[in-house]
Write a structure and sequence with these properties.
The protein is α/β, with parallel strands linked by helices and 234 residues long. It is built from 6 helices and 9 strands, in the order E-E-H-E-E-H-E-E-H-H-E-H-E-E-H. The longest helix has 19 residues.
């Protein structure tokens, strides 16, 4: 809460009464204001392309699990989705298929919005595997559709990447990436990057924290917390 003094309406401020009344200063009141209710929705998107295999994927998932623990303990609605792309022509996600029909977008929902963060989700996160290539533009198209379905005053996407964005199917993905980021910005959605051994999301306007070792996991959690705090103080 915050008390606003020197007001012309509200509760009489007895401390100001003696000073201002004799000089006909009518700023005699004060009012206590309370912050508006904040309702968050956070989508964590994890790059599980082939280049993340080994130590990078382990670092990613440790950071994701730590962020999920934070959100779960705070009672904040969130979802965790791992994504990749494939050169297979067969995909159940045709709405996100690139014009280049050799590619198809792939996702694995590790935690859906309405699920609790439990041992099942934790085990799924630990058992994640690396798979083919990343399609950043189509991944964000999917992320936008998901985050905008959520009823919340504050919506945020945490986007993990371990390479130059975008890498595969470059021209189409870059054009779509720029388009999606513009739409998300217009909708008031924050998109923040987590760069595994890279800060490449920065060049697309995403505030990015680098994840170079296990010691940086705490920085990634702090990054999420600061972004949420920034929304409250705006």
């Amino acid at each position: 809460s915050k008390t606003q003094a020197n007001r012309r309406s509200g509760k009489i401020n007895t401390r100001a009464l003696g000073k201002r009344a004799p000089v006909d200063d009518d700023r005699l009141s004060k009012k206590k204001t309370f912050p508006k209710k904040r309702d968050y929705a956070v989508l964590i998107m994890v790059d599980m392309s082939g280049s993340t295999a080994g130590e990078r994927l382990t670092m990613e998932m440790n950071a994701v699990i730590s962020q999920a623990e934070l959100l779960s303990r705070m009672g904040i609605k969130f979802s965790v989705v791992a994504h990749s792309g494939t050169l297979s022509r067969d995909s159940v996600y045709d709405q996100y298929r690139p014009y280049n029909r050799e590619y198809a977008f792939v996702k694995i929902v590790l935690k859906d919005w309405n699920e609790p963060w439990s041992s099942n989700q934790l085990e799924s996160a630990k058992n994640l595997f690396s798979y083919d290539c990343n399609l950043d533009g189509h991944a964000l198209a999917y992320g936008r559709s998901e985050i905008l379905k959520q009823r919340a005053t504050e919506r945020l996407i945490m986007y993990y990447s371990d390479g130059q964005m975008p890498a595969e199917n470059h021209d189409e993905e870059l054009a779509l990436l720029k388009k999606e980021l513009k739409i998300l910005s217009a909708q008031g959605v924050i998109v923040a990057g987590v760069g595994v051994n890279t800060d490449s999301p920065t060049k697309h306007g995403l505030p990015t924290v680098r994840l170079d070792s296990e010691a940086d996991v705490s920085k990634v959690v702090d990054h999420l917390e600061k972004l949420m705090e920034a929304r409250v103080t705006k």
